[in-house]
Amino acid sequence: MQMDVFAIIIIVFVYGSVIGSFLNVVILRLPAEGESIAFPASHCPKCQTELRWYENIPVLSFLALRGRCRTCRASISYQYPLVELAMGCLAVLLFHRFSISLSFFIYFVYVAALVVIIVIDLYHQIIPDVISLPGIIYGVVASLVLPWVSWQDSLIGLLAGGGVFYLIALGYYLATKRQGMGGGDIKLLAMIGALQGWQALPFVIFCSSLLGSIIGIGAMVVQKKGGQTRIPYGPFLATASLLYLFLSEQIDFYMRVYLGG
User: Fold this and answer.
1) Alpha helices, DSSP H, located in 143-200
2) Cα separation of 90 and 120, whole Å?
3) Is there a single domain that holds both residue 176 and residue 231?
4) Interval 84-132: pLDDT, tens
5) Could you check whether the bond before residue 40 is cis, i.e. omega within 30 degrees of 0?
6) Residue 59 pLDDT greater than 60, yes or no
7) Residues ≥6 apart with Cβ < 8 Å to 13
8) Same domain as 93, residue 139
9) Do 24 and 140 belong together in one domain?
10) Overall domain count for the chain
């Protein structure tokens, strides 16, 4: 029985890493206007040589090629194996949390979207509407079959998530006449609320604010730009969402203890 579980974990990890390989294509091409995520086939961005199947094996190909293109020897970004490893590990965590179930596959799509959002926002400081807006609808529809989130929780989460950040962004703009939080962050929190329910929002907002403040202070020191320092907020929201997805029971318990005390 233990061997069976171990074999399933290996299969789940491989499945996640293969999807992670595809996500790298999405991350690279989605922000580029007019690019297709399906065509052309995977190729070296430097010399444009099409990659063979054995050069597309997640993680292993990067190690075998020693991080360089087989044809032109250009360096391959560490983003590729890191995203593949991340999706493999996240898939295993989803299996541990939900087993192989409808919830597993629903949240696998959600987690994949969050990974893409994290990397694109880090590189380009944008959260593509083509992910967040369909993600909001996806969350509401998914709540009709998810045992963990009711459709009422989803709708409240959607409205509260988007509404809270909209009011914060509006208040900041009125006070400073500068745009502090982008519309992409507002839509992302609405998507999080739709997929995880309103119950996730207090922790996601608190945790993302805490992480953002810590990293932001560090960035201000390094960049020496003071209040003009800009860092993307989407990765902190997505990270907090992932933490709540896998640790919601523990987080809710300690929040009740803290608030009750």
Assistant:
1) 151-176, 183-196
2) 18
3) yes
4) 999 999 999 999 999 999 999 999 999 999 999 999 999 999 999 999 9
5) yes
6) yes
7) 88, 89, 91, 92
8) no
9) no
10) 2
